[in-house]
Specification:
This protein is an alpha/beta fold. It has eleven helices and 13 strands. The structure holds coenzyme A.
Length: 335
């Protein structure tokens, strides 16, 4: 079957206004700016307002991506929303976004693939276009992680932040756009990064609330080991699937979890620091929003040029990983 080439026609992001610095955190738990910067690279993160849920951030980012793509909401055929902090168990946050942006012709669904969610969602959305089923897909990653953090747990509360990013996917010129992807999972080790309660295994109860089982629990060392191995490996696998090698890679947009994880991936990929987007110092780990926020910044800063081979790569809960190779199809650095 002939595949239609699919590229990004618009990108946008939204960060809540409130800034929480490392010094602020050191007033809340036994930590310090020095420890957090040295072990993670994070200096501050954004925190959503009490009234903001994932859909509110998603709408802001989605509207910016639509504008950037010169696309009306009615032209969107499908909205995929990736998140681990949806507004509700159901209805899906994608449906809330669909209604509020007036995308009246769009199908809509959510995906939960941990921090790999946005990259998984992009691969999914692209297939609807390359197969000829849909013409325009809005893919959003949006998280309000501050609402599922145990603010007394210094092992996790220093790592995460809130934000949203989005892209519009549509047909692009031959030879450009998404060239390949590498998606994977390792469910056996899923318990190293988990919110234990609130689902059908451990429904909400007084005990689950008292035990803080509705917040993120993590074996940081195990996740670190996995991440360092998988980001480089998955990037190389995705490039291979596109018939490319490391020498072809112009720019990397990695999941923003920890600069030490990114730096060790760069070593493996033989890539210099100028060829990678790092903004986790400002936003922390925003889970499935981190890759599209980083992509939006890199595009706006003119770091990605038409014809560049770029890779979006992420890892996260599941455990999961995902990488996408794109031959950049837009003239950027000028919007
Ligand atoms: N401030 C000060 N000390 C802290 C701390 C904090 N915020 N958090 C943990 N510590 C302490 C630990 O309790 C430990 O103390 P101990 O030796 O007395 O037990 C010490 O610092 C070292 O902890 P360690 O776990 O060895 O640190 P680390 O170098 O592995 O860094 C992480 C911890 C969490 C930063 C790191 O493991 C990591 O980034 N993991 C991946 C997490 C991630 O990316 N998760 C999301 C994936 S999508």
């Amino acid at each position: 079957m002939e595949r239609i080439p699919v590229g990004i026609s618009g990108v946008g992001s939204y960060l809540p206004e409130k800034i929480l610095t490392n010094d602020d955190l050191s007033q809340m738990v036994d930590t310090s700016n020095e420890w957090i910067v040295e072990r993670t690279g994070i200096e501050q993160r954004r925190i959503a307002a009490k009234s903001q849920a994932a859909s509110d951030l998603a709408i802001e980012a989605g509207i910016k991506a639509l504008k950037n793509a010169n696309t009306n909401p009615e032209e969107i055929d499908l909205i995929i929303h990736a998140s681990v902090t949806p507004d509700y168990t159901f209805p899906s946050t994608a449906c809330i976004v669909q209604h509020k942006i007036n995308a009246k012709n769009a199908a809509a669904f959510d995906m939960n693939v941990g921090c790999s969610g946005f990259v998984y969602a992009m691969a999914t959305g692209a297939n609807f276009i390359s197969s000829g089923i849909y013409k325009k897909v809005l893919v959003i990653g949006s998280e309000v992680l501050s609402k599922i953090i145990n603010w007394e747990d210094r092992n996790t509360c220093v790592l995460f932040g809130d934000g949203a990013g989005a892209v519009v996917l549509e047909q692009c010129d031959d030879g450009f756009g998404i060239l390949s992807y590498d998606l994977g999972s390792d469910g056996e080790n899923g318990d190293v990064l988990i919110v234990p309660a609130g689902g059908s295994r451990n429904p909400a109860s007084a005990d689950s609330v008292n035990g803080k089982l509705h917040s993120i629990q993590m074996d940081g060392k195990a996740v670190f080991k996995f991440a360092v191995k998988i980001m480089g490996e998955s990037t190389i696998n995705a490039l291979k699937k596109a018939g490319l090698g490391l020498e072809d890679l112009d720019f990397l947009v990695p999941h923003q979890a920890n600069t030490r994880i990114i730096d060790s991936s760069l070593k493996r990929l033989k890539l210099s620091r100028e060829k990678v987007c790092v903004n986790l110092n400002k936003y922390g780990n925003t889970s499935s929003a981190s890759v599209p926020i980083a992509l939006d910044e890199a595009v706006k800063e003119g770091k990605i040029k038409k014809g560049d081979t770029i890779v979006l790569t992420a890892f996260g809960a599941g455990l999961t990983w995902a990488s996408i190779v794109i031959k950049w199809n837009r003239e950027d650095g000028n919007d």
